[in-house]
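Budget justification aside, the reviewers requested a transparent look at the raw inputs and outputs of the sequence design task funded under Objective 1. We therefore reproduce one unedited record. The lines immediately below are the structure tokens for a 278-residue chain.
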């Protein structure tokens, strides 16, 4: 993928490329030459991410035979020719695992994010996270352009929003039924019932449903920790259970963002309003 990016908070254009090099060693040089060609054609600050299918240093691979020095040298020379520098990472070093039991487990840092110095000047606070993904043997490379900016983003906490993802839990109906049994005042029965529902749904959400994104991250971190240990049948079964949980919560997250999406608001979401508000 090759795209030119422009956003409201950064009026200057920059290039984003998602690169994949051949898994066959015989064709690896062909991939490096392609990256060089794409680099020469770029006149904008450049961020390049993807599966390079190669490590830069021996410590970036664990298990099996060491990488041939000439293969790592070809990778380093390609990045130098393209004026690309490794953005580094946080959390787990490895981004790929063959998911076989010990002593046949192999882990490596095959995925990374690289950029030109001009791009670094545009986003000096950019950082890279390796996020485990249950449905893939590769981790997700998450680029945060400005972590501090994300923390400062204003979010309205007072408005009540009924999340469509809540309906996936049978407890949601029970909470609403219990709240709706509230009698309320003689002239405000409907309003009081709605407010009681809001209050109890908020409490239930915090106590039981929780933060969807945090739950997914928590389960993925547990998977990552287990994958870094000696693989046994028990750990393998536990990983599969955690994957099922990740899949379940990812489905809830997709439903949440479908409801949030302005572009799908009338087409696929709530046809009256994107949120239930009072």
């Amino acid at each position: 993928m090759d795209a030119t990016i422009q956003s409201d908070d950064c009026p200057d254009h920059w290039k984003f490329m998602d690169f994949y090099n051949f898994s066959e060693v015989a064709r690896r040089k062909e991939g490096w030459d392609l990256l060089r060609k794409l680099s020469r054609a770029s006149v904008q600050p450049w961020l390049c991410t993807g599966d390079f299918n190669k490590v830069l240093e021996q410590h970036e691979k664990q298990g099996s035979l060491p990488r041939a020095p000439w293969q790592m040298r070809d990778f380093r020379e390609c990045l130098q020719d393209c004026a690309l520098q490794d953005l580094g990472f946080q959390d787990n070093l490895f981004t790929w695992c063959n998911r076989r039991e010990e002593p046949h487990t192999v882990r490596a840092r095959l995925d990374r994010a690289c950029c030109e110095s001009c791009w670094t000047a545009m986003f000096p606070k950019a950082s890279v996270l390796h996020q485990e993904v249950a449905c893939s043997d590769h981790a997700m490379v998450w680029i945060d352009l400005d972590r501090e900016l994300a923390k400062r983003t204003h979010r309205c906490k007072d408005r009540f929003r009924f999340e469509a993802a809540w309906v996936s839990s049978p407890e949601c109906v029970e909470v609403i039924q219990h709240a709706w049994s509230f009698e309320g005042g003689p002239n405000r029965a409907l309003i009081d019932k709605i407010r009681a529902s809001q209050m109890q749904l908020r409490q239930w959400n915090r106590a039981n449903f929780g933060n969807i994104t945090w739950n997914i991250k928590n389960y993925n971190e547990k998977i990552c920790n287990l994958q870094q240990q000696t693989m046994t049948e028990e750990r393998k079964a536990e990983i599969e259970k955690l994957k099922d949980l990740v899949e379940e919560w990812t489905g809830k997250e997709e439903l949440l963002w479908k409801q949030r999406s302005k572009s799908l608001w009338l087409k696929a979401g709530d046809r009256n309003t994107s949120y239930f508000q009072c």
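The domain at 2-152 is CATH 3.60.10.10 (Deoxyribonuclease I; Chain A). Residues 149-157, 270-278 have pLDDT under 50 and may be disordered. Computational costs for records of this kind are itemized in the attached budget.
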